[in-house]
Every structure is written in structure tokens, then in C-alpha cells.
Request: fold
Amino acid sequence: MAAVVLTERQRLDWLRLIRSESIGPRSFRALSTRFGSVSAALEALPELARSAGRSIRICSMAEAEREFEALRRLRGRFIALGEPHYPVPLQAIDSAPPLISVLGEPAALLRPCVALVGSRNASVAGLKFTAKLAQELGDAGFVIVSGLARGIDTAAHSASLATGTVAVLAGGLDEVYPPQNLGLFERLQGNGAAISEMPLGWAPRGRDFPRRNRLVSGLALGTVVVEAAHKSGSLITARFANEQGRQVFAVPGSPLDPRAEGGNHLIREGATLCSEASHVIEALTPLLRPDAAFPHATTWIREEGRAGEAEPLWDELDLPEVAPAPQTATLSAADWGEPAEALAPQDGGDLLRVSLLGLLGPAPVSVDDLVRASGRPARDVSRALLELELDGTVLRHPGGTLSRAI
Reply:
């Protein structure tokens, strides 16, 4: 697609069409192609809907202008598909959003990206490895993309603030989830960017997270899954990456740790094993040549049974030329990860013990690492660890490192 630059009126028309009821990325493209322009598609939409026996709420110019101005007040901007700052890898996917809203440095979207995703309830070992991987990939010139979630996503963004990171939100850019990452969200904009396809004011729902995940993988040349349970949103990201023809990497883990089940499964099914940054760098470097094309999908990831019924990731107008939206089983809020504290007894000592058990896995880690990851005073952590040792739920190893008894 040749590079274009929209006028402000055209940008408002694009926003009106994509914000209209039952218009998704695929129907947007089909309608603009059929009628020759987005403005013509907007004019034809009411009659088209009536002929299909239904009515459609069309986003008004006033609504579009309000969102346009609200994003401007946040110092953000809309970038349209085909414009110079629209990420080329994202433009290549068949469900590329017509408009993305961006905060921060749009130039970060033009650099080669690697997605790092994984468990929200990550182990200390997983968090350390993610930080090391993000730093080394950043030093090699890659921007780190993730979803701003707790755990692996947070570690990936935090470790790549200096070299550049992109956060993809499931809701609007003014609806940061989880709210604990608001500070990180603001810091990463200094040398990176935050993007969303959703309207301002949109609080994320269940199906918005897998919808977001297709953008995480779509921005990147490759996706690395660090820790992922068998039922994990990270596996949805890996599936999208595979379908988009991108490289999928997985970090192996102990078969005794449930957080390693997803990554080990991906490796068994054909993902590239990743135990150091060079494994990613060597595989993706050939794609950095100006004449390099994205590889074709190999569709090696088999569909796994998941909790919940499958539903389309967005609503599309029922037109013969519009392919149906991707379907995936959505996860509940609990599956997407609520803080352990919300599920634990409301006693301070119990909360800390639950938190420490969540940070521990079969791989031994130091007390200092646990103190840093927990954010609690060293004295409290040491006391809680001693209690867990006496309970037999934590094992101490030579050198003072600890692991969870499996």
C-alpha cells in the first residue's frame, strides 16, 4: 500500500466509520474499497444496513471531533493505515486496525520490534530472565512490545525503558489496566509509545484482551513466550503470531512448574527454543534487510480446548465480501490475572506468604531477588520465608537460595 497522509477531515471520516456499530477492520476495508472512499462508505452505510434488514448506529461528526480533541489534549495522535508512521509489520496483518491512537514517540513504531509476553503471576526467575532478555534485545536495536499487564509484561517494559518499548492497551489510552502500572505507562512514553485501537474512555472487557494480543504479535517480527500456563492469554498471542507468519519463541521451563506448561507445549509443537537473547537475534536479523519479506505462516500450533465459548473478537457487518472476524475463547477476569492479594486471607502475614509463594518456582532464587520482587522490607520477607520453610512449602538450597517445594 502506498504511503498516504490524511487531511484532518479524512481522519475524522475514518474515525467515524471505524467507531460505527458493527464496523470492524475487515468491513472498514471492504466498504471503503467498494465505494471508493471512506466518506462515500459513510454516506452509503444507512441504506446498506436497511437493505440487510437492520439499522446501524453511525458515529456522528460531533462524537468523532470530541474524541479527536480529547486525544489531542492527551498529546496523542491518530495514525491511519498506510500513513508513514503506521508500523509496517502491523499493516501486513489481515485485520490491521484502520486507525491506531498513539501516545509517546511514534518513531518507536518504525523500529524492529520483538514481543515479550507471559504469565501475570510470574516467578522471580521468570521476571529476571525477562528483564535480561529485554535489556539484551534492546541493546541489539529491538523495541520491546508487550501488553502492560502484571508480571512478565511489566518486567519487559521496565527493562527496556532506556532502549524503547511499546505498550498495547486493551482499552482506551485513558483506561490503563492494571491501574498499578499507570506510572510505568507514563514513563515508557519518553522513549517509546503506547497504542490502542479502542475509543478513549473504553474500559477493557474479556474479549478485548485477545483482540489486543493480535496487535502485540502483529507489531513484532517475533514473539517470545517466557512463562505461560496451559490456559493462558500468552498462548493466544503465540497463535496469532503464527497465523501472521511471525517467528514464535518459547522459553523452556521445569515440567514441575505449571507456568512452564504453555512454553514447553509450544516448543513441542515447533516453536523455537529461547534460552538466551542470541537465539532471537540470530533468527530475526535476516528479516532486517530492506528486501526481506515476512515468512508465510506454518500453522503448527494446534487448537487447544479452552474454558469459555468462542466468540468473534469484534462485530462485523454481514456482507458477502467481508471475512468473519477471528474467533477465540475469551478468558474470565480471573484468567487474565487478579492480584493474589485479592484471593488471599486478609491478614498481613498471610498476604506476604501468598505473594512469596507466587514468586517462587522450582528454580532456586536469592532472598534479595524476592525482596525486590515483593517490594516488602527484607525483615518481613525473611520472617515469612522462615515460616514457609517450617511449613515445608519452601526449600532452602546451598548458598541460601530458595525454591518452592513441588
Notes: The CA atoms of residues 367 and 401 lie 7 Å apart. The chain has three domains: 8-81, 89-336, 340-404.
